[in-house]
Write a structure and sequence with these properties.
Blueprint (H helix, E strand, L loop, with lengths): L9 E5 L12 H13 L4 E4 L11 H15 L5 E4 L5 H10 L7 E5 L8 H14 L4 E5 L1 H4 L5 H10 L3 E6 L4 H10 L5 E4 L5 H7 L3 E4 L6 H12 L3 H17 L7 H9 L16 H15 L1
Parallel strand pairs: 1-2, 1-8, 2-3, 3-4, 4-5, 5-6, 6-7
Helix pairs in contact: 1-2, 3-4, 4-6, 6-7, 8-9, 9-10, 10-12, 11-12
């Protein structure tokens, strides 16, 4: 297991959930995906985050997937568990009932839909930090949640909540992210939440990525991140620009729509999502296949 300095640094993977054609969970393909990701050299796995379609799973399914991932990873890399919501009490109650054996941290998305103000966001994450027996990474993704965690709020949380050890930043607001990087306390990690912005954010001081594309291309993404974090910007830049068209295409019709199309192209999973998500259009599917083919040439 990684030491505390390295924990949540490098490449984390926002793990998808493979489904069978009848939409039940395909544990066989999930096992194969975990093995492929670990063999690709990733640093940690994020289980049951938003990319996993956790919002469409039952409590029984969530528990089964968590247990399966912990059992199959078997301590080979840290596991971060997605645990968020827009009802603070429900999140903290869920934390209290959760078995954290094999879990190194929590990734908690900003409350969605009810659009709390910045004071509400700070209190929400303080409650989660107080309740959690493992370190917490907050997740800012205003394109999904409808609310942005301002830099000042992130810095306040970082200063006041020792158990909040980092932020996955997917706002796309470089100025905001730089403000956090410039003023954050020592040891507080800023993690890219956008594959396409990972290379420039590492150059600015971010400590890696929680990646979607790494489900399908773990070796390529992990290599790019390691090179960038070592300061070998020329080699990292080359890989960044090789992956950039694919990283952008994967999000054209939402996530995990694009990555599931790519994983089917690779023969890893069925291209099955649960409603309200649907699989990609034929146009996007063919585009992803074409870009992927060029990468492999």
């Amino acid at each position: 297991m990684a030491n505390n300095n390295k924990l949540f640094s490098g490449t984390g993977v926002a793990l998808i959930t493979p489904f069978r054609k009848q939409e039940s969970i395909d544990f066989g393909k999930l096992e194969n995906l975990i093995e492929s990701i670990i063999a690709g050299g990733v640093d940690y796995i994020v289980a049951l985050g938003t990319t996993s379609e956790a919002a469409t799973m039952t409590a029984t399914e969530l528990s089964a997937v968590q247990s399966f991932i912990v059992e199959n990873v078997a301590g080979r890399c840290p596991i971060v568990l997605g645990m968020g919501g827009n009802n603070t009490l429900n999140v903290t109650d869920t934390i209290a009932r959760t078995n954290f054996d094999g879990i190194s941290g929590i990734l908690s998305v900003a409350p969605y839909y009810n659009k709390p103000n910045q004071r509400g966001l700070a209190q929400h994450f303080k409650s989660i930090a107080d309740a959690s027996p493992v370190p917490v990474i907050i997740y800012n993704v205003p394109g999904r949640t409808g609310v942005n965690i301002a830099a000042e709020t992130t810095l306040q949380i970082a200063a006041e909540c020792p158990n909040v050890v980092g932020i996955k930043e997917a706002s796309g607001n470089i100025s905001q992210i730089m403000e956090i990087l410039r003023n954050k306390p020592a040891g507080f990690k800023v993690i890219s939440g956008d594959d396409a912005l990972t290379f420039p954010l590492i150059a600015l001081g971010a400590e890696g990525v929680i990646s979607v594309i790494a489900n399908a291309l773990p070796k390529e993404m992990s290599t790019m991140v390691r090179l960038a974090m070592k300061g070998d910007c020329k080699k990292a830049q080359t890989i960044h620009y090789q992956l950039l068209p694919l990283a952008n295409a994967l999000f054209e019709e939402g996530n995990p729509t694009g990555i599931k199309a790519l994983l089917e192209i690779q023969g890893m999973v069925n291209n099955v999502l649960r409603l309200p998500l649907v699989k990609s259009s034929k146009t996007l599917y063919n585009k992803i296949a074409s870009i992927y083919e060029k990468i492999n040439q």
